Amino acid sequence: MNSTSHIIWDIDPVLLHLGSLQVRWYGLFFVGSFLVGFRFMQWIYTREGRDPALLDTLLIYLLVGTVVGARLMHCLAYEPDFYLAHPLEIFKIWKGGLASHGGLIGVLLAMYLFCRKYHESFLWLISRVAIPGALAAAAIRIGNFFNSEIVGIPTDKPWGIVFARIDMLPRHPVQLYEAFSYFAVFILLWVLYLLLKPQAVTRLFPGLFFLLVFSVRFALEFVKTKQADYQWDIPFTTGQVLSIPFILLGLLWTIWALKHMYSSQK
Q1: What is the pLDDT along the chain (266 residues), one digit of tens a residue?
Q2: Axis crossing angle, helix 100-118 with helix 122-146, rounded to the nearest 10
Q3: Full-prediction pTM beyond 0.85?
Q4: How far is the CA of 106 from the CAs of 7, 96, 111, 185, 219, in angstroms?
């Protein structure tokens, strides 16, 4: 494969050097997505006549849940041998290593605890957070692109990109595939949110989010490089195995919600 006809990607993952402090592109997209999601949730709370004052606290819950869940899942599912032998390394988040499946589990647990404490409806909340959640997933994958990480397998397609910080082989820009797909999910959920009744949104969106986001993840794993430091005895990657329960849950949930919507219209 000839790399001269492809885009060469060699962006420094560090946006700013402030003495010993580094501001990385990934962190910018990560935090920025949460701030945009915060504004989006303010709009939803106001639109549906709820008090947006609780969102400051919810943001903290979500940030902590995302980071803790994503870090633990990465350490235990992708590099268990290393982290079980060096448990203190788990706390060194600045070295990288966050898994989206764990991030979602952490977010769900954080929202459950938040709803218990502040007497909010758990289903109502997760159905609304699903909308900016898809946007956050897209932003994080763009951050991975700027980090030249989670790259695709080599390709001779004209849109292949050479990640010069890894090697000089043109590869699938799978981070961008995921980002564009998640952004499409965000647009779909937003449009449906404007069209459907609030009760339908509450029932449908959690399952639809799981089904769409993790189906994309499962499909695109076929053009990703191996992320885990071990091999399965099955023809699926760690990311695909972790996605299957979410896909099945999302499919069953979506079927249940659509049946309920259909029967309520009779």
Answers
A1: 555 688 999 999 998 888 778 888 999 999 999 999 999 999 999 999 999 999 999 999 999 999 999 889 888 888 888 888 888 878 777 666 778 888 899 999 999 999 999 999 999 999 999 999 999 999 999 999 999 999 999 999 999 999 999 999 999 999 999 999 999 999 999 999 999 999 999 999 999 999 999 999 999 999 999 876 656 677 888 889 999 999 999 999 999 999 987 776 65
A2: 150
A3: yes
A4: 36, 17, 9, 21, 23
